[in-house]
Specification:
This protein is of the alpha/beta class. The protein contains 13 helices and 16 strands. Helix 1 runs parallel beside helix 4 and helix 1 runs parallel beside helix 13. The longest helix has 32 residues. The mean pLDDT is 93. The structure holds flavin-adenine dinucleotide. The site of flavin-adenine dinucleotide (FAD) has 33 residues, from helix 1, helix 2 and helix 5.
Length: 412
Amino acid sequence: MLNVAIIGAGPYGLSAAAHLRKLGISFRIFGRPMDSWLKHMPQGMMLKSDGFASNIYDPDGTFALESFCKQSGIKYGHTGVPVRLETFTAYGLAFSQRMVPELEDNFVVSVGRTADGFVLGLDSGETVAARRVVLAVGITHFAHVPRSLASLPHELLSHSFNHRDLERFRGHKVIVIGGGASAIDLAGLLRDQNAEVQLVARRKELNFHSAPSGKPRSRWQQIRHPQSGLGPGLRSRFFANSPGAFYYLPERLRLEAVRRTLGPSGGWFVKEKVIGRVPLLLGYGVEHAEAGDNGVHLSLRDADGNRREISAEHAIAATGYKVNLDRLTFLNPAIRSAIKAVENTPILSSTFETSVPGLYFIGVAAANSFGPVMRFAFGAGFAARTVTQALTKVFAAGRASMAVASAVGVVK
Ligand SMILES: Cc1cc2nc3c(=O)[nH]c(=O)nc-3n(C[C@H](O)[C@H](O)[C@H](O)COP(=O)(O)OP(=O)(O)OC[C@H]3O[C@@H](n4cnc5c(N)ncnc54)[C@H](O)[C@@H]3O)c2cc1C
């Protein structure tokens, strides 16, 4: 029987697979390589994370984004040079070919339990038995649409997850709802397509990362606002570099930190694409949405009770992602209900294991346990190391007890 099945082939699944490969543990990995980046983010987008924080991890650190860019003749900087979506996607695909050639481009349609592990059903019709399962399904199942918009039909409302190619909106009237990076990016890119776009957000102001000054940072600045994979600052540094310590904070503090840290903000390089180019309706929430004769009609309201009515041919909810175990319908209901959860997210051991023995979650679903870094590629190194070291111990212990059993058998 297979030792480990990894479900998901984004930065987390690929990092975990590269580590298992080196450790010599038998595994199979299923998923569409870099699917979230390849199909579910808008063409022309740039990553918010710096170059040094946009890696996929192999155990020897031999194939970082920097090496890929050098080999491909792409401009790279640890900081200050935004990483293009196309670059990161090409890097991820190159990583999977070089470091995880066994990747199988299959979707897992069911996961059930057996006496000694799990059985996976693939979309190809094959079934696979595995002792352990690592779920690295990222944002795939968690697109969040606020209740006030949920009743609109698909032709009038979509989630930002559905948009890669924005060409279809050229010359059309579109409303983007949301105040975070996805919404800001989309609004700017739609404007580039000559869409008549407006942005509606509950926030009274849009936030953007500060642009790098280009000057060397003083010693004091480096101490007070140290650089980190999640941006500058002591808190960000702690969240980025110490997910193992974050894990031991009281649950209430962890949940609060994940909720509040790294709130919605756009990259510094997007500001000029949006400010002064895209009409902004800030401070407004959507109170009511309905289908009209020529598209979608939204009733907005601000905190003081002021109302606005707006219409467009289409609305895009760039309203983020919310982990919810109930959405993972490919997991057998008995497994889903056996996973202990808080706020519908799995409660994990210090090695990413759920309360269902042998079932692990890495990536955004692990954020309430290991902190905000799990929402970013930067956390994939820690997650891959921790989960694969734990699996190594499990299988080493298994081998030792088999050896003892057979030795005892021999003595008898
Ligand atoms: C617009 C946007 C911009 C972002 N910008 C950044 C950024 O600049 N830097 C950053 O670090 N992060 C960014 N993120 C966050 C990003 O989503 C995560 O960093 C990253 O994708 C996490 O990797 P992952 O492997 O956990 O998940 P994903 O990349 O989401 O990969 C999930 C994988 O699981 C597979 N999968 C899901 N279900 C199944 C199934 N049933 N069977 C088989 N396979 C399955 C998918 O096909 C895919 O291969 C951004 C997110 C968005 C939406």
